[in-house]
Design goal:
2 domains; nine-stranded antiparallel beta sheet; 13-stranded antiparallel beta sheet; single chain; globular; mainly beta
Length: about 550
């Protein structure tokens, strides 16, 4: 990787009809030959798949200025199972819009969100947030300010995102949600802001680009507003190697509003065993979802798309000398996309079949979960009492069935894993003996940015620092305050001195007027908002209140002695 988000290059998201056909083929041809083994050891199988959120119909392509949605933040598993664990929470994929056919097939989008990834270095059971800007066919990935694929010697996205907010730190390991989050909503989205002033060129090659700065907006309990943006150069610079892509990526093209919304899970640990009669049994690590009213879980709320009248026009007029723009979305330029209740799950249990191959059979989700519309523009699941385990209290979670039996294929349906009571699982499988716990693993490497005097991190360098912040995941951040247009991402954004100066003036306007405690995205229609880690919220030093941003230069988790 490149980092996998809600999806990776090797786990392609298929159109619905193709996915159904693929799953049918997998489930009807699977054969199971895993040797019998005691189940109390290392997991020998895993659960993976998608939860598909149905979006009926298509909206007008004029809603091309970005999107936002609300999703809950919660601990999917009851423990952190180690670095193999990878799952997004519900999320989406924002591609460039092409009214005509693109010059050649290319995969490039924004697909960040909440979740856990195999290259997360300091994970806990609480999810983190990454921005996830994917360069053509995963050649680069931009995660956040100073974070991305590659190395500092060969950066592949590490300079793709510029910090905009003077009040929020963005760690390279992902933006932390407050520890203990259990179903509170995180509102996020990307809206296009005219920060560069207009079409032009970037870089020494003078690559044509338009003024598209896709900016992350958050709506949480303790932080609201714009955070950071993908520099147009991040997308445009691929034109140096791929001239056919000039003008066809997100720096120049508007967004496609008709996006897929799904939850992709790539690894949940599982143990399988065969009894003396030849029957297969499985135990999956405790997997949980947030409970709302009754036995239901709301997973996606207010998936909204925007046209230029939502925010772009007001900001563009402001930057051109007109009245100041408040930053609040104009509802006249917003459209909440409809959702349906005929979603489905493709979760399956996969176990090795030898020669690097895996056998797969689906989990019978419909035996304990029913997709449902839970309110206007809200999609989720209703759970079947007695099959799932219902939590109690204010931040209750529901735990999915842990034990399954492989039901053989019949004329009516392929093989599938059906939930069963613990008492029906033969003791000879040893599945009841499993104690799920976080495995021992070597300490993670710290994130450290370049220290060479001639690097963009030191020349022109910061205006103040160093400062430190201790986060709920146990890590310590080191950060400095940079003048906005002298932060490393802007120094690598292919801009002339005049372009950087004009950008600096526009950002100063934003920072004076768009504070972190005002409303930008429309508030959710139910529930409560989750918080970002309070340690990430900072105040600028004296005389650096406007025109400067905090940039994290190191992140490490001190070893306990």
């Amino acid at each position: 990787m490149k980092r996998c988000y809600a999806r990776s290059k090797n786990h392609t998201k298929y159109p619905t009809t193709r996915l159904v056909g693929l799953m049918a083929a997998l489930c009807t041809t699977a054969t199971f030959g895993l040797p019998s083994a005691k189940a109390a050891g290392t997991p020998n199988a895993y659960e993976a798949g998608y939860l598909i959120v149905p979006i009926p119909g298509r909206v007008s392509l004029t809603y091309d200025q970005g999107f936002s949605l609300y999703v809950p933040a919660w601990p999917l598993l009851s423990f952190y199972p180690g670095r193999q664990f990878q799952s997004g929470l519900p999320g989406t994929w924002m591609f460039a819009q092409h009214r005509q056919k693109a010059p050649k097939p290319v995969y490039s989008d924004v697909e960040g969100g909440l979740g856990w990834w195999r290259d997360t270095r300091f994970a806990t059971i609480t999810p983190k947030f990454t921005m996830g800007g994917v360069g053509p066919n995963f050649t680069e990935v931009a995660q956040g300010p100073g974070a991305g694929a590659g190395t500092w010697k060969h950066p592949m996205g590490k300079y793709g995102v510029a910090q905009l907010s003077p009040w929020l730190l963005f760690p390279p390991d992902g933006l932390n949600i407050r520890q203990g989050a259990s179903g509170g909503l995180v509102g996020y989205g990307y809206l296009n802001l005219p920060l560069l002033g207009g079409p032009g060129t970037v870089g020494e090659e003078h690559i044509p680009t338009r003024n598209h700065c896709w900016t992350l907006f958050l709506n949480t309990g303790n932080f609201k507003g714009p955070v950071a943006f993908f520099t147009p150069y991040y997308w445009a610079h691929f034109g140096k190697k791929y001239p056919d892509l000039v003008g066809h990526l997100l720096d120049s093209k508007p967004a496609q509003p008709n996006r897929a919304v799904q939850m992709e899970t790539q690894y949940i640990p599982c143990q399988v065993a065969q009894d003396s009669a030849g029957n297969w049994w499985a135990r999956v690590a405790p997997t949980r979802f947030p409970l709302n009213d009754g036995m239901s879980s709301a997973l996606v709320h207010r998936d909204t798309v925007y046209n230029k009248s939502a925010l772009w026009n007001a900001v563009n007029s402001w930057f051109s000398g007109g009245p100041s723009a408040s930053g609040a979305i104009d509802p006249a330029g917003a459209l909440q996309r409809p959702m349906a209740q005929h979603g489905y799950s493709t979760w399956e249990i996969r176990m090795p079949a030898g020669n690097g191959k895996w056998t797969k059979a689906p989990v019978a989700w419909n035996m304990f979960a029913t997709p449902a519309l839970l309110g206007p523009h809200t999609y989720g699941y209703r759970w079947l009492k007695g099959i799932v385990k219902e939590g109690r209290g204010k931040n209750a979670l529901v735990t999915l069935p842990q034990y399954y039996r492989l039901e053989s294929a019949s004329n009516r349906q392929p093989s599938r894993w059906v939930p069963v009571p613990k008492s029906t699982v033969p003791s000879e499988t040893h599945l009841q003996e499993i104690v799920w716990r976080t495995p021992r693993q070597a300490p993670s490497r710290p994130f450290i940015t370049p220290t060479a005097p001639d690097s963009s991190w030191k020349s022109p360098g910061p205006a103040a620092g160093p400062y430190t912040a201790r986060l709920g995941d146990g890590t310590v951040l080191t950060y400095y305050w940079y003048k906005f247009d002298q932060q490393p991402a802007i120094m690598h954004a292919g801009l002339t001195t005049d372009q950087r100066h004009a950008l600096q003036l526009r950002v100063e306007k934003l920072q004076r007027n768009w504070t972190r405690n005002r409303n930008y995205l429309q508030a959710p229609g139910f529930g409560r908002l989750a918080d970002v880690d309070p340690a990430l919220i900072v105040n600028p030093p004296r005389r650096l209140g406007v025109g400067y941003v905090p940039i994290v230069t190191a992140q490490n988790r001190p070893v306990k002695r």
